[in-house]
Amino acid sequence: MDSRYRKFLALAETGSFSAAARSLRVTQPAVSLAVVSLEHALGVRLYVRRNRPIVLTPEGEIVAKSAQGMRAEFDHMRAALEQYRRQAGS
């Protein structure tokens, strides 16, 4: 999963840049830069500036929901690969 989506999803789930950074064990500026980069790539605003806790825009809600699905698929893929490695090593 693209790290920008992972960082944005942490922001959406925690409601703050600093909490998202702590949960991912990265710096707050790393989360901020990733979210800005994602906004530029998608051409939308993902959260309302000046609100605490962070409030997602309608577009941000769409991206967050999709990112949750991506995370689930990514986790499923990693588990399947791990299972394959265990079986291939037997």
Structure write-up:
The protein has 90 residues and is mainly α. It has one domain (3-89): Winged helix-like DNA-binding domain superfamily/Winged helix DNA-binding domain (Arc Repressor Mutant, subunit A, Orthogonal Bundle). It contains 4 helices and 2 strands, in the order αααββα. Strands 1-2 form a two-stranded antiparallel sheet. A hairpin with a 6-residue loop joins strand 1 (47-48) and strand 2 (55-56). Helix 1 crosses helix 2. It is elongated and about 55 Å long. The chain starts with a helix and ends with a helix. The mean pLDDT is 95.
Q: N-to-C terminal Cα separation, in Å?
A: 29 Å
Task: Count the beta strands.
Answer: 2
Domain count: the total is 1
What fraction, in percent, of the residue positions are helical?
over 70%
> How much of the residues is beta strand, in percent?
under 5%
Largest sheet: 2 strands, antiparallel
Overall radius of gyration: 15 Å
Order of helices and strands: HHHEEH
Short précis:
Helix content is 74%, strand content 4%.
For this entry, give a set of tags.
single chain; 90 residues; mainly alpha; Arc Repressor Mutant, subunit A; two-stranded antiparallel sheet
Secondary structure layout plus pairing:
Layout: H1 3-14, H2 17-24, H3 28-42, E1 47-48, E2 55-56, H4 58-89
Antiparallel strand pairs: 1-2
Helix pairs in contact: 1-2, 1-3, 1-4, 2-3
